[in-house]
Design brief:
Blueprint (H helix, E strand, L loop, with lengths): L1 E4 L4 H12 L5 E4 L5 H4 L10 E3 L5 E3 L1 H8 L13 H29 L10 H22 L12 H16 L5 H4 L1 H10 L3 H5 L6
Parallel strand pairs: 1-2
Antiparallel strand pairs: 1-3, 3-4
Helix pairs in contact: 1-3, 1-6, 4-5, 4-6
């Protein structure tokens, strides 16, 4: 398998962590997402991550990829097969993905070179960051005093939340979520010690 992605993408990081936790071998191909001619050969949406199968078929959207990948190996089951537990884990993932999506959109509005300063919308950035702050607060409330997001076991929910918090540290370091939400800090401290998180940490700068 080949995973097409970018080191700065929190969604790519989520997939890479899942692949590592599942102990699956794959080729990682770095991609410039602005080079549409290249990425669109594999994914018509022009987005990463994109998983290319041995037969050339492409699987895209991080949620679809991680669900598929979790079925490839019995090692470290990350998504419950059915019922309320499965729904809980996928809802955590949706919440964390929402944080990442809003943060990415806010950063693009603030930094994209294709737009002048006069064209940037502070109102749009504020709207996206409101989603970030509300969702991080919801994460803290949902976590409570549990060891992991979905109870006592490490799951995709924790990977997604860890990637969301890691992206905030990477691109929005001024947000002091640790002092506001000590339970998230405690969870994050456990996650960043896992080799899968260490090996996929966002690059400096």
């Amino acid at each position: 398998m080949k995973l097409i992605g970018a080191l700065n993408s929190p969604f790519v990081r989520k997939v890479r962590i899942v692949m590592a936790e599942k102990r699956l071998d794959y080729q990682f191909e770095l991609e410039d997402v602005w080079n549409r001619d290249t990425i669109m050969k594999a994914n018509p949406l022009g987005k990463v991550p994109c998983l290319v199968m041995e037969g050339g078929e492409a699987v895209f959207d991080s949620r679809v990829i991680v669900e598929y990948v979790d079925t490839l190996s019995p090692v470290g089951k990350l998504i419950p097969d059915r019922g309320r537990e499965r729904t809980e884990v996928r809802t955590w993932e949706a919440l964390a993905d929402g944080v990442m999506e809003a943060a990415v959109l806010a950063r693009l509005e603030q930094t994209w070179a294709g737009r002048s300063e006069a064209q940037r919308s502070a109102a749009w950035v504020s709207r996206q960051m409101d989603k970030v702050h509300a969702s991080v607060a919801a994460m803290s409330q949902g976590l409570g005093d549990k060891a992991f997001c979905s109870g006592t076991h490490f799951s995709l929910a924790d990977i997604a939340v860890g990637c969301a918090l890691g992206y905030l540290d990477f691109r929005f370091a001024h947000i002091d979520w640790r002092s506001q939400y000590p339970n998230l800090e405690k969870l994050d401290a456990k996650l960043v010690q896992r080799q899968s998180f260490i090996d996929t940490k966002h690059p400096a700068g």
